Amino acid sequence: MIKAFILDLDGVITDTADFHFQAWKKCAASINITLDSTFNEQLKGISRLESLERILRSAGRQDDFTAIEKEQLANEKNNFYKSLLLQLTPDYILPGIRQLLTDIKDAGYKLGLASASKNAPTVLRALEIDGIFDGIADPNNVTNGKPAPDLFLQAAAKLGVRPVECIAIEDAKSGIEAINEAGMFSVGVGDRAFVQEADFLTSSTNELSLHSLIKAWQRKNGPE
Ligand code: B16
Ligand code: MG
Asked: What class is the 17-85 domain?
């Protein structure tokens, strides 16, 4: 039986992925590393410090900085990212998502968030949807980030539901792996190449209706 829906934030509810990319590009440029959008795909869903490690490794520079210097670089990236977030308004909610959130709540399902972002509370406030979630996983409080299942399992625990009772939605390869590992029904949004391991694929958030998600779950699990 479906009891809850758990959503990713960046790339599913809002497109802050481009802000992350701009901030990492600026941070990387300060140490003479050039980032392109293809490489950026590998950073989606990945924690701040692990993202920095991946950027340094991509340029063979992983041993050039101390832990303190890495912390400083990650802080600089975050400060720039936060300055970009100041322009965020409810207009930044991706197409179809407001209706989906309303339909989930109106139908009596629990609503959870599983974002790797420590800025998630600020983003939700700026989008004016911070009050509607029944459980929000805390990335400060998990052992492993995506692709490990920890954030999704913590969200389900906060909602008081079992993983098999959850439909979870992600835009990143690491996120789909996390959902599958958690034992939830996975829904991938966006470029097929990155979310092909999902139980159900959609090319844009516009296609995420409550009806279509329930139908997809039933095709795999049988009628509720
Ligand atoms: P922060 P999600 C992830 O959010 C982003 O996709 C990823 O690019 C970012 O590095 C990560 O959050 C950490 O974000 O630096 O704000 O803590 O997709 O899991 O909602
Ligand atoms: Mg995402």
From this structure: mainly alpha
| 173 CA from centroid of ligand 2 (Å) | 9
Enter the pTM of the model: 0.95
pLDDT tens across 167-181, in order?
A: 999 999 999 999 999
Closest-approaching ligand to the CA atom of 43? 1
Question: Which listed CATH number (3.40.50.150, 3.40.50.720, 3.40.50.1000, 3.30.565.10) goes with 4-14+91-221?
Answer: 3.40.50.1000
> Residues with Cβ < 8 Å from 58, sequence gap 6 or more?
33, 39
Ligand 1 shell residues, CB under 6 Å:
8-11, 17, 20, 43-48, 51, 78, 115-119, 172
Q: Give the residue-averaged pLDDT of 198-203.
A: 96
CA–CA–CA angle 204, 210, 176 (5° rounding): 55
